[in-house]
Amino acid sequence: MKQEEIARELGLSKSTVSRALSGKGRIGRETRIRIQNFIREQDAGEKEDTQAKTETRTLGVVFPNDIYANGHPYFLECLLGICETTSLLDYNVMITVGTAQDISGIRKMVEQKKVDGVLLTRSLEDDKALRYLLEAKCPVGVTGLCEYGEVIQADIDNEGAAESLISLLIGKGFRKFALVVDNLSFHVNRSRYNGFYNAILKSGLQKENQAFYMGKFQKDLCDSVIQDMMAKKVECVVCGDDILCSQMFSRIQSKGYRIPRDIAVASLYNSSLLDSFLPLVTAVNSSARTVGNVIGKQMIQFLQGREYQKKTMIDYEILMRKSTERR
């Protein structure tokens, strides 16, 4: 602000303002303090105006690209939860898609200053997107867990849930399991894998006696895995998520096997995808919408300089159903 403008606003002469700012010449103490306080107030107001102009009140939400291939009710429910929170708190959402290697959509949002913070809906080991956002000093949250303490995290206790489910199945008399997941570079699958084997080892069962399968489970791979499980006399197949469970369940029944008489089936994540299968599927039940609510709220509270939680774990329940019934 120019000296002439200050003088005009305060009803003083330009020379009086000049003496107050330079510290030279005679000027009353009260007048000097009045001028200094006015300048500080103006500087603070300009800073607030600058912040208001750069604030977008928009959160970026990043989905994995395989959401288009499989639908993934988890991610859709999570988005609904985020949108519910942002709507209530007068924020907007901008969506982009990323892969383990392609983060161009994220870069565009950040570098063009389109968002105030970014929410990743899948957490990866050695996560390129997460590293980029931290280096860019962009506020970031994850619907999952990661090793960075400064990242806001909201997740289901997937390790604990997997351990609880397998422990219950062991209590029902199952001894020979197969675990099926698509990719262990996803933190969620790594957590479920750890929980599965925690239950196996704590129960006194031998890890090497259990079967483990990983890959992109299209029809041919599913059929090959089912054949191998039957040859190994697997009693219960535990699927990493609802997508895998729906694929395995369909292929097992198409082969003429009876669930659970010939082989039992359970899922480490429940969704509406499994509602159409009979017998009803034993599964871990939890709310992806709640995960979205929480991560959205904690991010906005952080952006507003309010108290927030860096890590929140969401409750789950085990649904024991007829797909794992023992006869």
Automatic annotation (TrEMBL):
PROSITE patterns: HTH_CRP_2, HTH_LACI_2. Residues 1-36 form the HTH lacI-type domain. Keywords: DNA-binding, Transcription, Transcription regulation. The keyword Transcription applies. Signal peptide: none annotated. InterPro entries: HTH_CRP, HTH_LacI, LacI/GalR-like_sensor, Lambda_DNA-bd_dom_sf, Peripla_BP_I. GO terms for molecular function: DNA-binding transcription factor activity; transcription cis-regulatory region binding. Transmembrane segments: none annotated. This is HTH-type transcriptional regulator MalR. It comes from Acetatifactor muris.
